[in-house]
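Long-time lurker. I teach an intro course on protein structure, and each term I like to show students one example going from raw sequence to a predicted 3D structure in token notation. This year I'd like something fresh instead of my usual example. Would anyone be willing to generate the tokens for the chain below so I can use it in lecture? Attribution to the forum is fine with me.
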Amino acid sequence: MVVNHRLQSLQDDLLRNATDIDTLCQALDGHTLFLRHSIHHADAQAMDSHVEELRGSACEMRDIARTISP
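-- Reply from a regular --
Happy to contribute to a lecture. Here you go:
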């Protein structure tokens, strides 16, 4: 079977970036928790929204990666 290395590289990059975004989201969850327990409640709500959007992007990256057939 012939493997298209460019497609494989693209798939690997998408999956790696999605994992990196997951790691970032975990860190931001901790920051959001800190904000929630401080005087910055509105900032915590905004941060929650941004984190959810990032998680959605990571999910989309994985979906795209699954469609690639190297």
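Some talking points for your students: Residues 5-36 form the longest helix (32 residues). The mean pLDDT is 93.
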